[in-house]
Amino acid sequence: MENFSYSRPATLKEATAQLGKEHGKIAIMAGGTDIYGGEMKDNLLAPERLVHIKHLKELQGIRQGTGSLRIGASTLLSDIVESPVVQKQAPLLAMAAGKIGTLQIRNMGTLGGNLCQRPRCWYYRNNYPCYKHGGNACFSAIGENDQHAILLGGPSFIVHPSDSAPALVALGASARIVSGTGERTVPLDKFFVTPRENVRRENVLLPNEILAEIDVPNAPAGSKAIYVKEMVREVWDFALCSVAAMVTLKDGVVQDARIVLGGVAPVPYRAVKAEAALKGKTLDEASATAAGLAAVDGARPLSKNAYKIPLTQAVVKRALLSLA
Amino acid sequence: MAKVTITVNGEARTVSVPPETTLLKLLREHLNLTGAKLGCDVGDCGACTVIVNGKSVNSCLMLASQVDGFDVLTIEGLATTDQLHPLQTAFEEKGSLQCGFCGPGVIMSAKALLDEEPDPSVERIRDALAGNLCRCTGYSKMIEAVQAVANSVNSHPSVKSA
Question: Cβ contact (<8 Å) for B130 and A103?
Fold first, then answer.
């Protein structure tokens, strides 16, 4: 590992003042499980300075907003899983956060970090000169691509690894982003960017910005939700496919539905066709099957990941039937 | 160099380390506390698990600087010269370990769980130990040992100390 200096600013203002104009030179660390434990240890990233932000009071805690919860980006994932208010007002987020990594990782990792983590693609993690590293190829396109994208892929075929992201997109959350010159709020479904928009990064954060807070609207009255995650192994791995499903039913008929997929696209993928297929239907075997089919409409598998299509269909169907 | 002050097993220690030093390295190489093990070094295996401010963490993924001012408990902090910790006794009695490499991490994960939740369900125990890989035992005897301690803690609350 290259030498770096470590900075522990006292305030968010001090932290943003230290940030630069270029990604990578000055890196932001909260829990550090990915940026330090992953990227720096594997020599994917060699920042000159590491700015620690986990302890900052401005980024801590779960507060009541107006019809929403405001969760500081440095809030521990395990605190979110255990939080009675999150369990009550946004149970989908508590469920999804509980599926992240191991308990040790959830005791170290933060919500902001889970949203900003880099891809798990083995070519990226093994420092292949791919698009993500500034090269001009995606090695998975013709290589070992069984865990890669079936939707919205190209030119890079990474999948977004976050479990909290599909849940937060389904809940209609937004991100409050702070820089030295001001702040902006971005709906979470606009926070993540496809490789076509920016092949180097997975979100809209600029080098001088810090993700400060996530605003999570309360789950609609009468809604039910579930997060289902399929992995290579039974416990703690990144998702081959996951679904955050939320439905509002009236007399068994779907009034509103949110279906967001993880592990199958470079961004949390909102399956709007599946949502449309459910609206006005009785939630049953037939409508859940149809929603599963609609969820992967337009999927374009690579040479080794076509299995993700029936897998995703089945996971969507199973998630929905559990809510019926 | 970064100056780090931590309380380790009840004792305040101050060490100067290069910024890239992990908590695990600080414990093993600077404080000679070699109970926590270096296994995978990427947060997969849990052999390096210690308790920081009451929570189980992978000390291989944490910078020493991150825990400046924090309270750290390692496996060395459990037993006294006279007596093993109840978890250690239960692991011994049940034959919960074979090669033992994962043991310090598993026991610290179990301790963090029982401190927070004295009577956990099997599901909770499995979740708390899921981040600790053991290639010898198949985990069943470990879960039995944690349950045995949970039961004894409930019938004799005084056992919970240490």
Answer: yes
The alpha carbon of B90 is separated from its chain's Cα centroid by a whole number of angstroms, namely 15
B131 in reach of chain A (CB within 8 A) = yes
Residue B160 has pLDDT above 50, yes or no: no
Residue of A nearest to B65 (CA): A6
CATH fold group of domain A57-116+159-217: 3.30.465
Buried b (16+ CB within 10 A) or exposed e, B49-81: bbbbeebbbbbbbbbbbbbbebebbbbbbbeee
Class of domain A223-323: alpha beta
Q: Mind listing the domains of chain B with CATH numbers? A: 2-76 (3.10.20.30), 86-156 (1.10.150.120)
Choose, out of B20, B42, B115, the residue to mutate when testing the contact with A (most A CBs < 10 Å).
B20
* Structure-block tokens of residue B6: 């931590």
Q: How far is A124 from chain B (nearest CA, A)?
A: 16
A151-162 residue pLDDT tens: 999 999 999 999
Residues 67-126 of B with CB under 8 A from A: 68, 109
| Mean pLDDT over each residue of chain A, to the nearest integer | 97
The alpha carbon of residue A63 and the mean position of all alpha carbons in its chain are separated, in whole angstroms, by 21
Q: In this predicted model, which residue has the larger pLDDT, A108 or B157? A: A108
Domains of chain A, by residue range, sit at: 57-116+159-217, 223-323
* Interface predicted TM-score of the whole assembly (ipTM), two decimals: 0.94
